[in-house]
Please model this.
Amino acid sequence: GIQVEQSPPDLILQEGANSTLRCNFSDSVNNLQWFHQNPWGQLINLFYIPSGTKQNGRLSATTVATERYSLLYISSSQTTDSGVYFCAVVTNAGKSTFGDGTTLTVKP
Amino acid sequence: DAGVIQSPRHEVTEMGQEVTLRCKPISGHNSLFWYRQTMMRGLELLIYFNNNVPIDDSGMPEDRFSAKMPNASFSTLKIQPSEPRDSAVYFCASSDRRRGARPLVSGANVLTFGAGSRLTVL
Model:
């Protein structure tokens, strides 16, 4: 099946710093989403981005489908950004696969 | 819409007991997914349905697990008999799967998750 690899696995930042999270996938996909799992365990959709670039406030994402990777940018990080960030892809057959996530800790 | 509704939110049971987890997808969504999340294995897709039909159950760990979707607005995940290693958070998600759709315009093909059911098997 399709492989999804996220990097780095862990990231510790000082408040105000910027960061880039990466998601590589091994085959062509129909969908790609970035999720944030907050400390309460909720999975919140950040971006639906099978290709191109989107921005939402301090967050933006870029997917280069032809090169099979996606990047999530977090600027001016805040302590509330802490949590696990997941990349999830969906194949043309409709099957979804998650990466192992990047655990982000933002220190005040 | 109230989003994807899962119940129960928490369940503690003894080994050997039957566990039934429930999910109500977003109205109008035609795809439903069951996931399990553990520290050791991360988020695993167990099974997914399209138009109430199971499409891929290769992620179901063993015969003790079964899932049904009797209609478009309800699905169950059952574990019988339960074991301590089944302890995890079980998530349900739904999407409006459309081939060739432009999701940025229509919202199609976007996974929306429920709050999860935390299962502890003693």
